[in-house]
């Protein structure tokens, strides 16, 4: 099964890029939320990275993750994906990414933002299917 085309609003896209740039030189991380019946990402919530090596890996701060989850529920949104940045490498899943969060739920996407060239971030979205990350197409759609 091939992943569907993923959609993100301009506002969410801008927030995604800003969150990643603000975190430099650390990896940024967080969640992507929206309305499940539309399947469009409309909000981005950064979550503090508490990994012991934050420039090379990420781990959600538990308190921030809980607050983000409740905020998502309160605004009647659904979790549509996760994101993190790679400050100095391409937007390809690392070994740590492969061992991290995965689910075969096609509604949950994983976005990696490469900041090798901070003025021209490179984004690749993925869906986790059949035991590995599969590249997914995405588009800005307001």
From TrEMBL:
Keyword Transport: no
Domain JAB: 11-115
Keywords: Hydrolase, Metal-binding, Metalloprotease, Protease, Zinc
SUPFAM superfamilies (alphabetical): JAB1/MPN domain
Superkingdom in the source lineage: Bacteria
GO BP annotations, alphabetical order: proteolysis
Gene3D superfamilies named in the record: Cytidine Deaminase, domain 2
GO molecular function: metalloexopeptidase activity; zinc ion binding
Record's protein name: JAB domain-containing protein
Organism: Paenibacillus sp. BIHB 4019
Lineage per the UniProt record: Bacteria, Bacillati, Bacillota, Bacilli, Bacillales
